[in-house]
Structure formats: C-alpha cells, structure tokens
Amino acid sequence: MTAKPARRAAAVRERAQTSAALRGAARSPANDAEGTTPLRIRPVRRGDLEAIIALDAHVTGVEKRDYWRAIYKRYGEPSAERKFLVAESGSGVVGFVIGETRDWEFGSPRCGWVFAIDVHPDARLAGIAARLFEAVCAGFRRAGVRKVRTMLDPGNTLVMSFFRSQGMMAGPFIQLEMELE
Fold it and tell me: Beta strands 92-102 and 82-89: pairing type?
C-alpha cells in the first residue's frame, strides 16, 4: 500500500471510530456511549481546538485550521460580550456554538449574534444544538441582551430548520453584497 491510500484508510478508520463513539451521544443526549458521563456545556479550552477543527472539516469538507486558530484567539477567553461554548460527552467535544453581543450596527440596538453552531452528524437529533443555543442565549441574557440574531444561507435547510425550531424568524434587515475586483 502506498502512503496516500494508507493515510486515507487510517482517516476512514478514525472517522468510523469517532462516529461509533458519537452515536452513543446521539442515542442519549444526557449521557455518553456508556451512559455514565453527562453531556456538559462549557467554555472552550485550548485543548478543544483540534476537535473543533476536525468537526468543522468533517461537516464542511474543508479544513480551516488558520481560521479556527484566529477564532479561538478572539473568542477563547470567556467574557460577557463573547461566547465560545462546547458540548462535551464522554467521547469528547461533540458540538460548539460561538456568538457575541454587538451594539448599534446599522442602527440596531444591542443584540446577540450567533455566527457558528455545529454538532457532529452522528450526535445530532439528541437536543445538543438546542442546549448549546440555549446556553449562548442565557449568556446574552446575563449581559442584558433581549434579542438574538444570526445569518445563514437560505439554501441551508438543516440550519434554517434548527433556528426556526428555536423560535427564530426573519428579521427586519436585508443583507446586501457585491464582488470586489
């Protein structure tokens, strides 16, 4: 076997092992695969970064190591304005959410913004994303925020359905863009 197929085979085995471990979390949102460790929502730690990079790469198909390092540098220290939380089970980090409070953007009073949320596909449908969203919103409330917003691709029906299931709906702003040459 050449190096490339061997690496590919190792990656497939690793994904299969991760998927098997996470299926236990999906079956029981409160416990890990052995039913002994409760799911915990907590602030991110530097040691979580590799798991977050791997989770995002698994879901998106693109590894964005530099991006996630920059996000950690900006949001990794807990504060009233910035939230970076992970969902952890006995199998490790199974999801994350990132948000921040912003003031008076385009005339909007202070509000919370969720700009990233994800749960490993094998751990979905267990209420983990809802718990992450609930936790980030609780942090916003403690900071005095009374409204939360997000922005997403309208073709991403999975994420759209999730946010709508949490009570979110279209807001008063329209997003505009143009190509820069």
Answer: antiparallel
Type of residue numbered 131: R
Full set of structural domains in the chain with CATH: 3-165 (3.40.630.30)
Helices (H), 28-179: 49-60, 65-75, 128-142, 157-165
Per-residue pLDDT 10s for the chain (181 aa) are 555 555 454 444 444 444 444 444 333 444 444 445 689 999 999 999 999 999 999 999 999 999 999 999 999 998 989 999 999 998 899 999 999 999 988 888 999 999 999 999 999 999 999 999 999 999 999 999 999 999 999 999 999 999 999 999 999 888 899 999 9
Element (H, E) at 133: helix 128-142
Q: What does the block give as tokens for 81?
A: 């304005």
- 4 neighbors 14 (Cβ within 8 angstroms): no
Rounded Cα distance between 134 and 115, Å, is: 14
pTM attached to this predicted model: 0.79
Separation of alpha carbons 19 and 25, rounded Å = 10
